Amino acid sequence: MSTAVDVVVIGAGPAGLSAALNLVRARREVVLIDGGRPRNAATLASHGFLSRDGISPLELRKLGREEVAAYPGATVVDRVPVTAVERDGDVLIVRAQPRGGEAVEWRAGAVVIATGLTEVMPSLPSLRAFYGTALHSCMACDGYEYADRPIALIGETDDLAEQALLLSSWSRDLIVFTNAVGVVSAADEERLAALGVRVERRAVADIAGDRSGMTGVQLADGEVIARDGGFLRPRYATGLEYLQALAPETDAGGLLVVDAEGRTAVPGLYAAGDATPPGPQQLIVAAGAGARTASAVHRDLLRAALDG
Ligand SMILES: Cc1cc2nc3c(=O)[nH]c(=O)nc-3n(C[C@H](O)[C@H](O)[C@H](O)COP(=O)(O)OP(=O)(O)OC[C@H]3O[C@@H](n4cnc5c(N)ncnc54)[C@H](O)[C@@H]3O)c2cc1C
Q: Could you tell me if 268 and 223 lie in one domain?
């Protein structure tokens, strides 16, 4: 089955929803397609989105989907992952595979990539059980709830000192766990110590806690260091293998390189949100980028129609 539309938006997080909303309002025929695996579903409350502070992330997406779907130009396809985007002359073909169903495809003059990121966490057995409730990855989103509480920063990256400095603005009762991998220089450790922040370089075995919540960080030697909760410093993956045929430019972190309005260098291919530099940000930033990209898509399609 192949359907022609003006634009396909891939990913229905805030970036894709906002792009789709603005495009249907510009009277474009738009397909908004999502694989149904939102990264922030782990959390119960999203913070910092103006007028929606504290809303559940799934509720925010549901409200957005309903707003988009209410327009006659919109087709919203949920829980169907896109498997490939290919070129056929001026047209881009988006292929998707419904679970247990027949493959589908759309042909469009423009495609907006808004598929965000996935996290690669330190490998600790109970980490996922506490992720989103006691352990978080975005300080700007969840730091406020941990003000002055005993917290951990756990990571294996080489920017832990910078992250710890930022986190200390919410709580100085902070211990940085490197899991014997993350890098904190002796000079940075001294600077952090002056703020009251300790660096723990021993290997971490697990997160300690039970159904009532996280109680600490368990080290490989058996010691448990009491902590209420804290922040992880994940690595990120983009999952953009489905764009292989178009080979868009990516930066060192695998993020899609775009101009100030969301255009990649591949004609007709645009991107917005966490899948673009600098990577993981916030809901409202992704939504803003989606709206800005929608405007570029609409203007480019108008120009192409005049020229063509
Ligand atoms: C646990 C957690 C808590 C957070 N809390 C907050 C908060 O409180 N406040 C805040 O402002 N920000 C928060 N964030 C950050 C925020 O969620 C992201 O910055 C934002 O969602 C990025 O939006 P996006 O649209 O770029 O990508 P996403 O929201 O990640 O959406 C991408 C979508 O693309 C879909 N997708 C992926 N691959 C495919 C494919 N091949 N085919 C079809 N669809 C696909 C996914 O299913 C997903 O729905 C949090 C993030 C996490 C992980």
A: no
Same domain, 113 and 125: no
Please give the backbone phi and psi of residue 60, each rounded to the nearest 5 degrees, phi first.
-60, -45
Distance of CA 48 from the midpoint of ligand 1 (Å) = 14
Measured by CA distance, the residue closest to atom 53 of ligand 1 is: 40
Same domain for 209 and 276, yes or no, is no
One domain for residues 98 and 16: yes
Check pocket membership of 81 for ligand 1, CB cut-off 6 A: yes
Task: Answer whether 37 contacts ligand 1 (Cβ < 6 A).
Answer: yes
The CATH number covering residue 175 comes to 3.50.50.60
Q: pTM above 0.90?
A: yes
* Residue 129 domain boundaries: 121-233
CB 204 within 8 A of CB 125: no
Ligand 1 atom nearest residue 289's Cα: 26
Q: In sequence order, what E strands does the chain have?
A: 2-10, 30-34, 74-78, 82-88, 91-96, 104-113, 118-120, 135-136, 151-155, 174-177, 198-200, 204-210, 213-219, 224-226, 229-233, 235-237, 269-271
The pick from 17, 130, 141, 233 for probing ligand 1's pocket by mutation, whose C-beta has the most ligand atoms within 8 angstroms, reads 141
Please identify, by atom number, the ligand 1 atom nearest to the C-alpha of residue 273. Answer: 26
Q: Given pLDDT bands bounded at 50, 70 and 90, which one contains residue 298?
A: very high
| Mean pLDDT along residues 225-244 | 96
